[in-house]
Amino acid sequence: MTDQEKRKPELLNGHIPAGHIPKPIVMPDYLAKYPAIQTNEMRDRYKAVFNDQFAEYKELSVEVHAVLKKFDELDALLRQLPHHPESIYEQERISKVLQEYKKKKNDPAFLEKKERCEYLKNKLSHIKQRIQDYDKVMNWNYPL
C-alpha cells in the first residue's frame, strides 16, 4: 500500500442508521465576517473592532479568571475535607457547602461570561491574524 493510499479517508459502504442525527459543524460567525483584508480601510475597520472588543475581553477575562481561581482554591479545600465526617451535623454542613459550590460552578450567568470570554479571545485572535497577514503582504511593521 502506498503512502497516498494510506492517507485517503476510508469510505464506508452502507446506509445511515435510522434515527441518526448528524452533528452540525458550527462555524464561528467571525470567520465569515472577517475575511482576508484587501484594503487599508478594511484594516482600519478591523483594528477599530479589535480595540473596541479587546477592552471588553480584558474586563471579562479578569472577572472569569478570578472566579476560576476561587474554584481551584475551593477544589483544593474540598479535597482536604474528611470523606467520612464524624457527626451528622458535620456531614450536613459539608453536603450544603458542596451543593452551594456545585450551584455556583454551574451558574448560567458565570457560564455565559466564560463562554463569551472564550469567544472574544478566539475572535480577537482571528482579527489580529488577519491584520498581521495584511501587514506582512504590504510589508508594514505596525504594532497591533
Describe this entry's structure for a reader.
By secondary structure, the chain is mainly α. The chain is 69% helix and 0% strand. The chain has five helices and no strands. The chain has helices at 3-7, 29-33, 40-80, 88-105, 108-138. It is elongated, with a radius of gyration of 25 Å. The mean pLDDT is 85.
Task: Name the descriptors.
single chain, 144 residues, 5 helices
In the predicted model, the low-confidence regions spanning at least 5 consecutive residues are: none
Number of strands: 0
Query: Roughly what percent helix?
Result: 55-70%
Main sheet characteristics:
none
Q: Can you write the helix and strand succession as a string?
A: HHHHH
Integer-rounded radius of gyration: 25 Å
Overall mean pLDDT score?
A: 85
Shape: elongated
Protein name: MARVEL domain containing 2
Organism: Bubo bubo (Eurasian eagle-owl)
Family: Belongs to the ELL/occludin family.
InterPro entries: ELL/occludin, Occludin_ELL
Structural topology:
Blueprint lengths: L2 H5 L21 H5 L6 H41 L7 H18 L2 H31 L6
Task: Give the gist of this structure.
This is MARVEL domain containing 2. One of its GO terms (biological process) is bicellular tight junction assembly. About 70% of the residues lie in helices and about 0% in strands.
